Amino acid sequence: MEIHANAALSLKQRLRLARRVVVEGWSLSEAAEVSERTAGEWAGRYRAEGESGLLDRCSAPHVQRRATPVERVEAIVALRRLRMPGAEIAECLQMALSTVQGILTRVGLGKLSRLEPPESANRYQRQRPGELIHIDVKKLGRIGHKGPGHRVSGHRKGNRSRAPVGSSCMSASTTPPAWPMSRCSATSRPLRRSRSCAGRCASTERTALGSSG
């Protein structure tokens, strides 16, 4: 049994209230520590269904008098499978866009990407450990002792003699059981450094896989 956070009565309190009214003959005003409407609701459900009537129910109506016909729902799904957007479906069937979107979401076709077959996992497998090198390079900005460059300060005076600003942090690792290694440098040659770095980790080197070419 799941009682929502704002429920005025627990299951035992509902049972005690209903028995006071139905069995002991108490009036609603005497038995209720809540409103008479709430007491009358639980007493009526206990009178009709017993203790099972005191359990929580779904708040949705039992019958939706204005529910969309099944034939219209099937037509919406058929047009959606032709990759028609919701606005065109609503215009074609003379229906409200909100109704069409609600039906598409309910049947799991709220996005056009749901019509595409699921993509397989992008996996790769090598024959021997250490055969594939993983390279990841991250560019880190660095401000020199003369301050930021002309894009921030607005002038180029005195910037010609400055050393190159920035550094590259390279991480290279091979397939197990080799250990990953990292190195930071002020150059932009991660691939060459990664090869020399990975050469100490693995005896063979066949393929390099990187995020920056």
Characteristic key phrases:
12% strand, 34% helix, 4-stranded mixed β-sheet, 4 strands, 213 residues, alpha+beta, 3 domains
Write a structural description.
By secondary structure, the protein is of the alpha+beta class. It folds into three domains: 11-54; 70-115; 127-143 and 164-213. 34% of the residues lie in helices and 12% in strands. The protein has eight helices and four strands; from the N terminus they run ααααααβαββαβ. It has helices spanning 11-22, 28-31, 36-49, 70-80, 86-93, 97-106, 150-153, 190-199, and strands at 132-140, 167-174, 181-185, 207-210. A hairpin with a 6-residue loop joins β2 (167-174) and β3 (181-185). α1 crosses α3 (36-49) and α5 (86-93) packs across α6 (97-106).
Strand proportion: 5-15%
Q: What class do helices, strands and sheet pairing give?
A: alpha+beta
Number of domains: 3
Radius of gyration: 35 Å
- Sketch the topology as an H/E string, one letter per element: HHHHHHEHEEHE
Percent of residues in helices comes to 25-40%
Please report the distance between the alpha carbons of the first and last residues. Answer: 58 Å
For the biggest β-sheet, the strand order reads: 3-2-1-4
Break the fold down into its secondary structure elements and pairings:
Elements: H1 11-22, H2 28-31, H3 36-49, H4 70-80, H5 86-93, H6 97-106, E1 132-140, H7 150-153, E2 167-174, E3 181-185, H8 190-199, E4 207-210
Parallel strand pairs: 1-4
Antiparallel strand pairs: 1-2, 2-3
Helix pairs in contact: 1-3, 5-6
